[in-house]
Amino acid sequence: MSSFAAPADKVAINPFSLKLRRLAGLGEQEIAAIDALCHERRHIAANREVTSESAEPEHIHVLLDGWAARQKLFPDGRRQFSALLVPGDICDVDGLFIRRYDCGVATLTACTFAVISRAELLRVINAFPAVGHVITWFACVENSMLTTRMAMLGRASARERIAHLFCELLARLQFVGLADGDSTIQLPITQETLSDVTGLTPVHVNRTLQVLRANELIRLEGHRLAVPDPDRLRQVSGFSPDYLHLDGIRQRA
Amino acid sequence: MSSFAAPADKVAINPFSLKLRRLAGLGEQEIAAIDALCHERRHIAANREVTSESAEPEHIHVLLDGWAARQKLFPDGRRQFSALLVPGDICDVDGLFIRRYDCGVATLTACTFAVISRAELLRVINAFPAVGHVITWFACVENSMLTTRMAMLGRASARERIAHLFCELLARLQFVGLADGDSTIQLPITQETLSDVTGLTPVHVNRTLQVLRANELIRLEGHRLAVPDPDRLRQVSGFSPDYLHLDGIRQRA
DNA sequence: CGTTGGGTTGAGATTGGTCAAAATGGGTGG
DNA sequence: CCACCCATTTTGACCAATCTCAACCCAACG
Question: N or C: which end of chain A has fewer CB within 10 A?
Fold first, then answer.
């Protein structure tokens, strides 16, 4: 069950448009061209695969409501999420130029996607080179996020990983207007999901959360995460928002 | 000291052109335009920073000879490599559209780079949209590689991580013609470097290598890695080369 | 030769994993 | 409104992979 009030169809301005406007540095004409591509909606229940690892993808998905994740599955059942997706995120840019996905997208809650035809998007890119640049930029930002998360997986403690993740989610959700105040968000995911993002065990996530709570770094009840002192959480985790590139695309000048 | 015989300047066809030709699906005209950008060379000694995390980058580096790595440094000295770079690899595509690098590139051996002016590359992209698509594709492939390595960091044992890395290097170096036979490569890096790629300690890398040697999965002497039975190593590590996308860019048709 | 940068080894500490059971809590059907 | 069910969270006891620290070795090189 999604935890956001209004169905995405009715949201005045959807979070993807919001991101485009605030980050992409496009003209109204180009934004309109992209908006025109996003007419089709798809609703998917929680815990389903959106794209699986196979087949030449013909559609790009943009998450408008709910939470999803990019996942890599091992044959023996191990799972690692490479990204948490929140409203406004493109799920599978790579589908544009890659033959086969090598990681899938799964919903964590009920989700609403905008489904964009790959062929049409390519047409728009040809008509408006700046749109192509924005797509490349999105790919680069993802790169940056993957790199950062990788550093955390490789070198950070459980405590740092979880704290860092929370800082990131706070920043991202705030950016698309889904934070409540400046330090509280809805976190409609289970501890098992957290474990698949952070590369830990559910049990260890649980214990680590308890420590964070005991240190009063977070308050986490039900699906609501509150951070009493964001700066302190950032310090504990070494989080700095630079890698999210919330200051937008670099102009070509 | 680079371990490859001929200085890159004298190599008949450089590994980057080779990759472009085999992967990018470009016409001769476009390839020529790119080649024309790659006239400037830069030689850098081992263990130096090529790009650091700051400043609006004005140049893109393509590695022609030697080994390098993308790295993320923690304030307290911890380090994680997010990618090993071998000849033919672009070091910093993101420089095109990103304001500030959030991870640096460091040389592991003496290196030769082709230095491409960002402005000129953007001009070529404008003139030939297909070149822009290839750049995006490169970014997507990197994404895919990061995702895979991330899954290994999050969920694989030390043994699997190292074995997987070796499989990957074998495949990549073979692709640019730097493997000797089909199962031997030069590995001009220290165990400490391996530890920074795999998120382990140098000591543990050492012990794990010994196990791999004892199991006759690898032979590793000096800086030469030989894999007696590549299939077995792939099996042990769960490696499949799909994520490297060595079958090239997807055509737009 | 002496120095130095890897590589190797050992002993002991720790973080995080495993397995299994118990508690909690929201949602559903009666 | 209650009883039950399931998923999720929490707890406990124990274990294993990996880390830490420190020493030692060895080959390359000045």
Answer: C
